[in-house]
Fold this protein.
Amino acid sequence: MLDFLNDLLWSKLLIVVLVGLGLFFSISSRFVQFRYFSDMFRIFGQALQRKEGQLSSFQALMLSVAGRVGAGNIAGVAVAIMLGGPGAVFWMWVVALLGMATSYFECSLAQLYKRREEDGTYRGGPAFYILHGLGQRWLAVIFSILLLVTFGFGFNAVQSFTVATSLHDTFGLPTWVSGVALVGVIGLIVFGGIKRIAAMADVLVPIMAGTYILMALVVIGMNLTEVPATLALIVKSAFGLEPAFAGGVGAAILMGVKRGLFSNEAGLGSAPNVAAVAEVKHPSAQGIVQSLSVFIDTLLVCTSTALIILLSGVYQPGSEMAGVVLTQTALAAEVGEWGRIFVSMALLLFVFTTLVYNYYLGENALSFFSTKRILLQGYRVLVMALVLWGSMQDLSTVFGFADVTMGLLALVNLVAIALLFKVGMRLMRDYDAQVQSGVKEPVFDAKKFADLDIDHAAWPQKSAASDVSPASATLAQSHR
């Protein structure tokens, strides 16, 4: 049954919906992910800023990257190459570039429909824009259940299994020891709430991602003359022009889309839960920033893993070596046995931050039903139990189940974004009009969107109309 559902979702529905909607969003928005690409990097100016009682846009970005960059970037890329050939990497790039537009819309909508909590923080996500944007509570409930099961439980078991396997391969460490250690450290973080989670993420994420990319650059430098041929191999394999590699075009596309979505989560509906937490002046500003996390995850980190594997010469079609072991062996072949240790340590950090991120998504889903403290504490205990359990299991069945729920989660979210597309475009045009009029930091005026079910307490700022010329104000109105 799991195989049948996975085949139906991934071989037929999601490839069409993900790529089709991503292309539609990109063209309709005049490729918003590229028009504002340089603006995405301005967010790093907030790296040392802290808002009392609130999360900055930078912290929300780092928390999002913490979730996206995990086992999928190291083990998932290796699996994609083994099952779909080098061409799978190309389709991961396609999914990411189109997914940047999808991520822009879903995160902008999450900001628009966020709700202000009693303590002054915010909460939001797809369940909130489904409820308040579409008025479909039943669909919001389904989404929240799928989010809780997929991230709160399923993916946490997968992540702990991956890191326990890596540490066992490198150091011979019993898998249960890794599980206990993960539970202990994660418990200290998750019981501290979202602010402690964000404080952890915006310190660890830049270090871990930067170090891993630097290591890939070292490998690239050692094999500089072979890089053009390797990139050509990826492109040719994507279109079936390299028959020596397993899978063919169909397998390359399937694995590229499937592992690409697992890694960068664009359109999956996970990142909007984090995007809604930040305090920003305009919803579109956070949508632009969140697009950058897709770029970092796939175009930088996943590509780093792919080049390490393909440049090392370790990968051979038909080999049974897969997952994190393939990545570790590839790096060890290039820099020596300490490369195996490096991958294990990088994976440990990646998985740790992803586990914490997954926990938060599950908590956010749970809060949609109830905010009773006893349920929250019970959820925390169950998550840590599953992390320990996952470290000691063969997770083929659990992974298959998580793939099914992830596919259903993506479908629900993508349908919601498509139905709310006009609202997303209206937001984008309001932002564009202010930028064109010379406003450096566009400000959201909730009064212009009074016809929507938004929480005005979450948007107390005044309009930036005073900074806009009369002609530009007329332009902004016409865009509405």
